[in-house]
Design goal:
By secondary structure, the protein is of the alpha/beta class. Helices cover 30% and strands 26% of the residues. The protein has a domain at 6-114 and 147-164: 2-Layer Sandwich (Nucleotidyltransferase, domain 5), CATH 3.30.420.40. The chain is built from five helices and nine strands; from the N terminus they run E-E-E-H-E-H-E-H-E-E-E-H-E-H. Helix 1 packs across helix 2.
């Protein structure tokens, strides 16, 4: 396996489970599975398979990288929770990497990172501006866009960015640019009767 530190990165911010294992600059294993649902059940077995294929164990890891969004609300929560739990139990740092950073790593100069969003919208990171959710036509009017690569490449970019992050980077936190689609019920809660 070598003496280079190992970084395990993963992402479930879209309709996939993706993971990459790096040893220094070398990609040891990269995997992804397309899935609209079931990331919570599939993520940990997938990570164990990636580690086994790379000849590593959890204790061999030096760092964890995780995609923090924007994207699917539930998927982001799954990955960030897993990363924080693993980091805590293993005593290693977890680094959150947003999708704009991961796209920018391989994007042509001057292209704005963009991620798909529901209802023909895009999450966009304008040059020098804050990320936002825009209708597709409005986002495309900002300039040339760089879209997310395949999930395997996305996970590899997350791993590379996490590996290069300075010590003391804060723990990962979700990047939400829109509220969850689910909303609390509007009906008043039922009255609880006390039969005493």
């Amino acid at each position: 396996m070598g003496s280079e530190p190992l970084t395990l990165a993963f992402d479930t911010s879209a309709a996939h489970c993706a993971a990459a294992l790096l040893s220094g600059d070398r990609v040891l294993v990269v995997r992804h599975e397309e899935m609209g649902r079931g990331q919570a059940e599939r993520l940990m077995p997938l990570l164990e398979e990636v580690l086994a294929e790379g000849g590593a164990t959890w204790r061999d890891l030096a760092r964890i990288g995780v995609g923090v969004g924007p994207g699917n609300f539930t998927g982001i929560r799954i990955a960030v929770s897993a990363a924080r739990g693993l980091a805590l139990s293993l005593g290693i740092p977890a680094v959150g990497v947003n999708g704009f950073e991961a796209i920018a790593l391989g994007a042509p100069e001057g292209h704005l990172p963009a991620l798909p969003a529901p209802r023909d919208q895009l999450y966009v990171q304008p040059l020098g501006g804050a990320p936002r959710l825009l209708p597709r036509a409005e986002a495309e009017a900002l300039g040339p866009l760089a879209h997310a690569p395949a999930p395997s490449e996305f996970a590899t970019a997350i791993a590379r960015i996490a590996q290069a992050a300075p010590k003391g980077t804060p723990p990962p936190a979700p990047l939400y640019l829109k509220p969850a689609d689910a909303a609390p019920a509007r009906d008043a809660p039922p009255k609880i009767l006390d039969d005493a």
